[in-house]
Design brief:
Shape: elongated
Bound molecules: adenosine-5'-triphosphate
Strand content: 15-25%
Number of helices: 31
Largest sheet: 7 strands, mixed
Structural class: alpha/beta
Number of strands: 24
Radius of gyration: 55 Å
Helix content: 40-55%
Amino acid sequence: MVDLPNSLLVVSLANKVLLPLVVLKLTLKGKDVTAMTRIHSKLTEQRKPMYLPTSNQPDINVTERKASKETPSETNLPTTSSTMTDDQLPISNERDLLHDYGCVARILQVQRFGVDSYTVTVEGVLRCKVDQLLFPSSSAQNSTDSTLAKVSYIKAPTTQELDDATDELVAFRALSKEFLSRMRQLHLPESLTTQLSKMIDNVSPLDLADLMVSVIETSHDEKLLMLSTMSVKERLGHGSEWMTRQLHIFKISEQIHSNIEGKLNKKQREFYLRQQLDAIKQELGESDAFSGGKDEDEMTQLAKRLDNAHLPKDAEIIALRELKRIKKLQSSSNEWSVARNYLDLIADLPWNKKSDEIVDIGRAKLQLDGDHFGLDHVKKRIIEYLSVVKIKGDLKSPIICFVGPPGVGKTSFCKSIAVALSRKFHRISLGGVRDEADMRGHRRTYVGAMPGLIIQGLRKVGVNNPVVLLDEVDKLVHSAHHGDPAAALLEVLDPEQNDTFSDHYLNIDFDLSNILFIATANTVDTIPEPLLDRMEIIHLNGYTFEEKLHIAKAHLLPKQTVAHGLKPDQVQMDDQVLLKLAENYTRESGVRTLERTLGSVVRAKCVAFAELRESGKEHNYNPKVDLQDLEDILGIVKFEKELAERSPVPGVVTGLAYSGSGNGSILFVETSKMPGEGKLQLTGSLGDVIKESAQIALTWVKSHAYALKIASSNDQNIVEKYDIHVHFPMGALPKDGPSAGVTLVTSLVSLFSTCHVPSTTAMTGEISLRGQILPVGGIKEKVISAHRAGIKKIILPYRNRKDVKQDVPERVQKDIEFVYAKTMWDVLDAALIISDKEKWTTRSYESHL
Ligand SMILES: Nc1ncnc2c1ncn2[C@@H]1O[C@H](COP(=O)(O)OP(=O)(O)OP(=O)(O)O)[C@@H](O)[C@H]1O
């Protein structure tokens, strides 16, 4: 106190009041301030002990003379805060604008933020009274309003005064403590409450009063009153009064808050919470395309779509439950998108949407006839089927399955049926489907779960009565690990069960009974037995050349011509040309390659037409394609009827084969003998069954060698000095099955007897050890392919007679001579070219075996 100077630099504080112990941050500008800060830093360096009674911190300094007003315009505010300064400076003329009392401040920190601009942190030290303003400082004349003032310092209260106010002091400390606890409940800044709680115990209640008055809400005048009150009791009285008032305000605002909350109805509350949620999301950067109003919009739309889908009762319950759930989920969460996809599926599925079916038998007949040549038995069956639908009104009859080689029109026939019925068409390819989940879907709990192929198809077509083609049902793969897709198909195809088909993903029964299912397969051999049982098989055979000619003329050529942008009459091909194309450029059961080859011819005509058009000679275009043109366009012939020209060789015989893909073909068996010791060698990529047939054949020939006149005595071993080699050409193709038995025997007999078999004779049949001929499969395909290859005579097991009569086209039957054999002797009789003299006379011998 004693060291404090008589005059101080006065800084007028706009709307603030500095009280002892209070820390304030001031923004000061001017040259005086710069000078003041320099002195401050010098004193700081010297660590000069200063005189401030309220604090014993050694490094606190007070400038000798400089400080400046916060802003010049604010000088009229009646508050002063002064820092110590020189007393020789002139008196200020602003005396009237300043309050009588001020607070001595000491500088804690100075920060420069521009030219002559500083942020100065000061702390109130003690009260002072401004006695007289001196002249403004020299620098102030230029730019600042800094003023020097003579001040007298207010002494600290005497012990007597303090003793007189003991009760008030104690009460004030207690009140301050209560106030502090209240502040804690209100979660006021932690730093402030901790600081206050420290001070409550460490500083005198009188100083505490100054501090509390600055902390609580008090008016500017109240603070000034506090500054100018000298009496201990009065000061404590002011402090207590204003603190109690503040406590009341706290209580009231709390009450108002709880009242308002109670009054908010549920909707408002929800809105309020949503707003808060949005704000939080935005803050977290989680707001996305689906959030906020847009989210709401989508949900309303979804609800509308679900409503329009006319769901059955159980589906509706599930959909509404899911809709309710999704509204509570975060749109960015995984669960939300799973639920969303699920609801989308439910809304998209055609629960009650049908395409209007027209079952018009006459129209259907025209459609089927128009689209496909031949296939009369298939058309007849389809018309029967449709007639039943027309009369009975539902389709609870067995599922139709078209079986036949590739390219015979199974798929396109199904499409024609859909058109004939005015229904939508959907194709499901089952080739390679190995997982039951492909048919029935995955449960929704799996990541990336999807509905099965049937439900996906229905979603795509958007009606519940399409024609669904289950393509390649014979190519389903049974897997031990992934369930059996065929088992799921059983349920789909069973008319008794499929009105409650359950897809794992959808998890709601869906009625499939309105769908017309048609299956296709290349062979029945690999169709699972229970599935086969539920289907009605309709065979589509391979076509003969004549049939191909008609198909090409009536369907394929016009189709290709139009597809390439020409008019139907701009490519003309005679029957002779078409037949050559079918015979010499394709070798297949169906007509797919034929169609492709016709496409090549049409393209060549396109080029010719385009070139002529460019040179303006369009009129010179010749739409005809003759035999020579065919060779020019397609190159030299690929397949020839080589059989006719082939000269017969002993040991070489033509057999008939049937492949799993539904194709028939001819195959040769070649045998030769060489010096050896009776070994049988087999080549040509043969399976076990065909190898066994070769063993049986050799055994039969050896045991009947004498009767066959290839051994001189009954006990001669014909292969004693020879090894036998049997080969099936086209070694790259695996071959198996018992039907080559008769061919093998004939080939061996031909080899040993040196009698040959005409190259236009072919045969098929299984042989028993006793020489009986057993029936085999694939007769029609084999016969048709033999006809295609130019075979004139076919030897077949007697018991396959009915297959020829029923299935082989009449035209083929007329062209080929059929020999039905019961025993091996019949086969040899029909096959070998043998003179009467050489003929064996062993029939009686055989008959009593
Ligand atoms: N009898 C026919 N009349 C007219 N066009 C036919 C006939 N048979 C087949 N086609 C035509 O042959 C082409 C191939 O037929 P499609 O694709 O239906 O064969 P597919 O039997 O289904 O073969 P895959 O078993 O390989 O699926 C189609 O363009 C089809 O129109």
